[in-house]
């Protein structure tokens, strides 16, 4: 907090004054929680046993540069380049493979909005805890993790937790029956808005679990 660019709050605002009056105002909060997500160091709070269960180390070897691209003054070829990255052995990048009470939210990166991914992960987890969707069985979990591991070995990424924004959001939304189900014939405007417009969390509130009655209206103003 001392090193951040967080503002200071001085004046108290009585409870009766909420919602806030128009214009700028100041208030004194009881606490300020900074959830930046910049530090993903799990080793600071996970037990050694859980670390062993989910934190995996991938070691990728890249082929040496071709002779044509190497320096003419170098008589020997360069050795293969090796790098290591850590990746999390989790179902859908969220659920512990053997403990159905342990979830990890927001431990992904993407070219899309990672905050929106975190919201979708939270919806997925709460629906599972509430019994609205079923927990995956062991075979499904192992199959998902095996696919992830094979993908990492094949693609040799620099960042292990990277997900493709739209496919990953759709994957979680499918379990919630929240993939937009819009008919061109019944609502052509909304159909084009969903499938040709920006991908936003609101479109995953049109149907399924946790629908929002104003989802269509919100999409109209985007």
UniProtKB/TrEMBL annotation:
Compositional bias of kind Low complexity: 68-80
Keyword Flavoprotein set for record: yes
Alphabetized InterPro entries for the sequence: FAD/NAD-bd_sf (IPR036188), Flavin_mOase-like (IPR020946), FMO-like (IPR050346)
SUPFAM superfamilies: FAD/NAD(P)-binding domain
Region Disordered, residue ranges: 61-81
Keywords: FAD, Flavoprotein, Oxidoreductase
Gene Ontology molecular function, alphabetical: flavin adenine dinucleotide binding; N,N-dimethylaniline monooxygenase activity; NADP binding
Family: Belongs to the FMO family.
Protein name: Flavin-containing monooxygenase
Higher taxonomy: Eukaryota, Amoebozoa, Discosea, Flabellinia, Dactylopodida
């Amino acid at each position: 907090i001392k090193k951040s660019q967080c503002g200071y709050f001085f004046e108290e605002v009585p409870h009766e004054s909420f919602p806030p009056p128009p214009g700028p105002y100041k208030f004194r909060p009881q606490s300020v929680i900074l959830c930046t997500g910049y530090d993903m160091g799990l080793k600071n709070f996970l037990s050694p046993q859980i670390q062993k269960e989910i934190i995996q180390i991938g070691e990728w070897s890249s082929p040496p540069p071709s002779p044509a691209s190497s320096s003419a003054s170098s008589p020997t070829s360069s050795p293969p380049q090796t790098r290591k990255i850590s990746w999390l052995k989790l179902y859908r990048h969220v659920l512990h493979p053997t403990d159905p009470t342990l979830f990890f939210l927001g431990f992904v990166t993407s070219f899309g909005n990672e905050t929106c991914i975190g919201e979708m992960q939270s919806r997925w987890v709460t629906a599972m805890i509430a019994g609205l969707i079923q927990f995956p069985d062991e075979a499904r979990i192992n199959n998902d993790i095996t696919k992830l591991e094979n993908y990492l070995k094949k693609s040799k990424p620099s960042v292990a937790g990277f997900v493709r924004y739209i496919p990953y959001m759709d994957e979680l939304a499918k379990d919630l029956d929240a993939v937009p189900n819009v008919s061109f014939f019944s609502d052509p405007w909304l159909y084009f808005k969903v499938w040709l417009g920006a991908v936003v969390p609101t479109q995953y509130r049109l149907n399924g679990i946790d629908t929002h009655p104003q989802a269509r209206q919100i999409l109209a103003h985007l």
